[in-house]
Amino acid sequence: MDYSVLIVAAGNAAAEGKSYKRAFASFNEKKSVLGQTVSVFLKDDRCKQVVIVASSADLSRVVRSHDSGKIVYVKGASTRMESVLIGLTAVSEDVVLIHDGVRPWIRKDYIDRLLGRMGEEKACVLAIRPKGTLRRVENGYISEKIKTNDIVVLQTPQAFNTSFIIQCYAKAIDAGHNLLDDSDVVTAVSDVKIAVEEGDLRNTRFLLKNKEK
Asked: What's the pLDDT tens digit per position in 60-83?
């Protein structure tokens, strides 16, 4: 199944007018974190288009760092929701994967799992079971154990029918929602069930060693 990927490289720091440092941090001697993330999709023949959303401060740097006929660059807005919607309007394929630009450990088998469901679903996400023992806290004290059988931690990429997720984002923005997860946008404005595929604990965000300013 062919698809586009929308890579969000405009985070909260970018919305505040700051450089999104993690995206441009060094992943290895040759690539930045964002560069590593993009490279996984460029190697996948099913990926026909890579849409990168970045802040105005970072956009020229993104363009200079990546050179491929598959890539489209989009200037982000003041919020993540607005940035994603702008990026979605540039998507060319019927299926889009929305991915966090600072999750560089994405692997092809994660993508395979999502695409395997998108022939019959409008939305599918990766998720993992939480590790360890969870407790509810009230007023600074442990109150009860939380049953984890039905609890998952969502990851990206998240896959959607393109026209459907565009409609969801437009409705959510019109309704004044301020959400940071794409599946939350779907559940906020529609009754469509979101399929879940097993993710991987290694598919995590890249963290800087020093505290981001």
From this structure: 666 666 656 789 989 888 888 999
